[in-house]
Amino acid sequence: MASSQRQAVWARVAMLEPVTRQNLLVRGWSSEASRGRTWSGWMAMIDVEGVSAIIRDVAAQEILPRYLALGTGDVREKQDANDLVTVADIEAERSLTRRLSNTYPGTMAFGEEGATTDPSLLRLLDADRPVWVIDPVDGTFNFAHGRPGFAVIVAYVRNGVTLAGWIHDPLRQLTITAVRGRGAWHGASRLTVAAAPSSLDAIGAAYGNLRAHGTLADILNRSGRFATVSNLLSGAIEYIGLVEEQRHFLVADRSFPWDHAAGVLIVQEAGGTAGFLDGADYDPRIVDRHVMVATSRQLWNDLQSAIGTDDGVSRSSASRPKLRT
Questions:
Q1: Which CATH number is associated with domain 199-319?
Q2: What pLDDT digit, counting tens, does each position of 123-144 carry?
Q3: What DSSP letter does each residue of 151-183 carry, written as one string?
Q4: What is the model's pLDDT at position 37?
Q5: What is the model's pTM?
Q6: Would you tell me which of 94, 145, 218, 261 could form a disulfide with 257, CB atoms 3.0–4.6 Å apart?
Q7: Which CATH number fits domain 3-182: 3.30.540.10, 2.60.120.10, 3.90.76.10, 3.40.50.410?
């Protein structure tokens, strides 16, 4: 990519939020006919496969051509060397924001990079109108280093409730979807989580820290109660593994909706259990809580016990998240 092209792309980073707001104002709030529509009514207007096709098309146009082809000016650090953004993130987010909001008038859209620039966009999750929440490249570190293990995440949220979710792995051409109350799917195949293993046989991931007690991975390893804790450096790929019966749990110390809203719904619709570490139900509007997902209620409880014992917090069983199947 030429230097002038790179400069133009990075100039668009600052434009993400205004472009998003233009879509919200023009497409989102002008439809009188949409007022009073229930969440089932909002889902009736969404073509799940049509959304999948948009995601696949954007990945083919904006992400895959840049894989293994990034120049030094195509990657930037956000907070540190492990927190990266690439031109693929920026261009895919812009394209998904535009195409989803234009295809479905009355909806709004924002993505990770736009919300990083303007965190006030998170307040849209409280709106009565549905919002598309986009992670254009989850696993950017892998993508930027030419490694497999990245995916596109899209969640469809209204009034703080995730109604549908999509995760697309461009390298595998694999798209998994879920609609609340209608199951999790790969094409025509309904997905289920793995049969519940003993925690001693459980394989999963743990990202981040627990206050002053160390990393979540170290806490689980020290407990001696779980087989393997290994991080794939992409929550999207972790969620795919959970419904492909390859992995059994995921714990993360941040709950950004672009990372977890779609995946939590997909796992719940596939028969798993998900919630915040303290036992409260997952809420995509809350960004600073520990999220915990497991393929069974018992494994979820075992994880909570191991981490809860380490931080000394006693939790009531009455507050545990509901298992949605």
A1: 3.40.190.80
A2: 999 988 999 999 999 999 999 9
A3: EEEEEEEETTEEEEEEEEETTTTEEEEEETTS-
A4: 58
A5: 0.85
A6: 261
A7: 3.30.540.10
